[in-house]
Design a protein that fits this description.
- The protein is an alpha/beta fold and about 400 residues long.
- It has two domains: about 220 residues, Glycogen Phosphorylase B (Rossmann fold, 3-Layer(aba) Sandwich), CATH 3.40.50.2000; about 160 residues, Glycogen Phosphorylase B (Rossmann fold, 3-Layer(aba) Sandwich).
- Helix content is about 50%, strand content about 15%.
- The chain is built from 17 helices and 13 strands.
- Strands 3-2-1-4-5-6-7 form a seven-stranded parallel sheet, with helices on both faces. It has a six-stranded parallel sheet with strand order 10-9-8-11-12-13, with helices on both faces.
- α10 packs across α15.
- It is globular, with a radius of gyration of 21 Å.
């Protein structure tokens, strides 16, 4: 079938979770379908980035809103009681481009990612499927709980607008998907049980535990370091968790690695904390580390970095909210903690007991390889499209 994929960001490079999900879904869907890609991008898309998608897409179209347009539409949405981030990704040019693509291509399905793209597709008279990816309202609510003053008020407003849009999605789209059942449950609609769970996967040929690396890094945390939940996790780790570790193991070295670290993350650097920016290959940071930790306190959806670390054979420590979408067994496939003392205790136990760390890592890798391949993750999405086409 012919599928028009509408995205809020160009799905390459793979430094953000939404890009990773979109890219691998396109790769799998392209095996049996004709894929046409449309993306909004607030940054330049290079020829090399386009080339990464060209083997899988019959056409690629990108609209670049100006900064003025993005912020003007954000402000306008605020005055009109609409989501601010939906305004940031909206533009008259993007709406017109998507309408023209639908008219000329006549796709069997329009598949859009995240409610940020709802304004671009809502009025299209065509079969439409939207991927919530995760419950953005839940993500915003958790951020609100850790904010104060004006930012808390802004987030409270955005939470209400996002919740309203998530609610309205049930009447706009023919089918809805989301990354995890915990996120579906967070959308309080009487039809929330109809949301299809489409998990993420891991590139199991890329993230392998086979390459032997010297374990010369003690603890590592990786992620997109301009994303608020990751910034909060890095600050929590350095300011509250690691001091407990350092009291018992003062020489423990922490590496924080990932794309575009904000100043709030760069300021965490010290003799015991190394902050690394964007790296061409994240795998050595996994493989050379004795412990991977993701102390997530806010956010939603599924943390790809945890799956990647587990697949690569690194013992992992994380929090209950991060494990909700993964569903690993605490104590067997990873370690779970919430308070600084709990997380620090897990780090210390893994650094102190190499046999336990090796066993946990092996169980984690086997768990991910059994449950989280991309072909298996995308198959239910293909079945949704096939069912809608058959019912026409």
């Amino acid at each position: 079938m012919k599928i028009l994929v509408v995205l809020p960001r160009f799905p390459y490079p793979l430094e953000k979770g939404d890009k990773l999900r979109a890219y691998h879904q396109i790769v799998e869907l392209a095996k049996t379908n004709e894929i046409h890609l449309f993306a909004v991008s607030h940054t330049k898309v290079t020829p090399e980035q386009r080339q990464a998608l060209q083997p899988y897409c019959a056409s690629i179209d990108v609209v670049h809103p100006t900064k003025f347009t993005a912020w003007f539409n954000t402000l306008r949405n605020g005055l009109r009681a609409k989501s601010l981030q939906m305004g940031y990704w909206d533009s008259a040019r993007a709406r017109k481009a998507v309408r023209n693509l639908v008219r000329t291509l006549q796709p069997d399905v329009v598949y859009n990612q995240m409610i940020r793209t709802v304004p671009l597709v809502a009025r299209l008279n065509v079969t439409k499927v939207m991927d919530f990816q995760d419950a953005l309202s839940l993500n915003t609510e958790r951020r609100m709980e850790h904010s104060r003053g004006l930012m808390r008020s802004v987030l409270h407003y955005e939470f209400k607008m996002l919740r309203s849009t998530e609610y309205n999605a049930f009447r706009i789209f023919d089918a809805l998907t989301i990354i995890a059942s915990a996120d579906a449950d967070a959308i309080p609609h009487q039809r929330s049980g109809e949301i299809h769970i489409i998990p993420n996967g891991v590139d199991l040929d890329y993230f392998t535990p086979d390459v032997v690396e010297a374990k010369d890094n003690d603890v590592v945390f990786c992620g997109n370091l301009q994303y608020k939940p990751n910034i909060d996790a890095a600050q929590f780790l350095v300011r509250e968790v690691m001091p407990v570790v350092w009291r018992q193991r003062p020489d423990t070295h922490l590496i924080i690695a990932g794309a575009t670290p904000k100043s709030a993350v760069r300021q965490l650097a010290s003799p015991n904390v190394e902050v690394v920016g964007s790296v061409p290959d994240i795998r050595p940071y996994y493989r050379r580390s004795r412990v991977f930790i993701a102390p997530m306190r806010i956010g939603s959806g599924l943390q790809n970095k945890i799956l990647e670390a587990m697949a690569t054979g690194v013992p992992c420590v994380t929090t209950p909210i991060a494990n909700l979408a993964i569903g690993a067994t605490p104590g067997t496939q990873l370690l779970i903690g919430e308070k600084p003392d709990e997380l620090a205790s897990h780090i210390i136990s893994l650094l102190s007991d190499s046999n336990f760390a090796h066993s946990l890592a092996g169980n984690a890798s086997q768990f991910v390889r059994t449950r989280f391949s991309w072909p298996a993750a995308v198959q239910p999405l293909q079945q949704i499209f096939d069912g809608l086409l058959e019912s026409k």
